[in-house]
Amino acid sequence: MSAAQALAVDCRDVVKGFGSGEARVMALRGVTLQVNTGEMTLLVGPSGCGKTTLISAIAGMLTPDSGGIRVFGEDLERMSRRKLTAFRAGTVGFVFQQFNLLPALTCVENASIPLRVLGRPAGEANRRAAELLDRLGMAQHRDRFPGDLSGGQQQRVAIARALVHDPRLVVCDEPTASLDAANGQAAMALLRELAMKDGRAVIVVTHDERIYRFADRIAHMADGHIENVSDLETAAA
Fold it and tell me: Which residues, listed in sequence order, are joined to residue 170 by a DSSP beta bridge?
């Protein structure tokens, strides 16, 4: 780690299971992973290996059964529910695989939600959302509703929403799964740009080998474990 870098995320022996008794399924089996600021880290591995569970725990959306997670030095387990909610709203951007857009809001309104939650004026929030939508090739669709969009277009709105408040940490679940090659590259370039800002980091769950070139590191998961982490020289830096 260079002098300019610090730990954005520090996971230590994180365990998480779902269900009980004989039906209990262990999603994470003692995951230890460090993510540096100024970098993009990809999480790769077969479906069901725990990738989405891990990023949900890192984002404070799931509570581990044991182990610890620190995000920018803050111990998530020690936070009250209110503090965790505020921390997540101001610090984390999450790109959901299922988009989770509100059907009654336009693209701009959906993308502006994090800024509105933080108390920013509607005009300012909408301007910032529109800027990001423009960069993602959605300028002509700003005032349309999610139901009028393709899956790929909805995904780009979801990415804009995750980035609109300039979060220090962005976690993404298959952000290019619904995008063609050109739009996928544009989205990853935008995420890469944020990762390179001082004190910020991006974690991406993906099966898309086309975007490996954007990564600084690739963490390989299997059966709820991190098997190894590859350090890369990114071609997109």
Answer: 93, 202
pLDDT for position 130: 97
Whether 33 and 56 have beta carbons less than 8 Å apart is answered as no
Contact 87, 117 (CB under 8 A): no
69: which residues sit within 8 A by CB, 6+ positions away?
Answer: 9, 10, 11, 12, 14, 57, 58, 75, 76, 77
pLDDT at 54: 97
Does residue 157 sit in helix, strand or coil? helix
pTM: 0.91
Domains of the chain as residue ranges with CATH: 7-231 (3.40.50.300)
Query: In this structure, which amino acid lies at residue 36?
Result: N
Cα angle for residues 198, 203, 204 (degrees, 5° grid): 135
Express each pLDDT in 81-113 by its tens digit.
999 999 999 999 999 888 899 999 999 999 999
* Cα separation, 122 vs 116, whole angstroms: 7
Residue 130 region by backbone torsions, left for phi larger than 0, else alpha for psi between -120 and 50, else beta: alpha
Paired sense of beta strands 92-95 and 169-173, if any = parallel
Give the CA dihedral 18, 21, 25, 27, nearest 10 degrees: 60
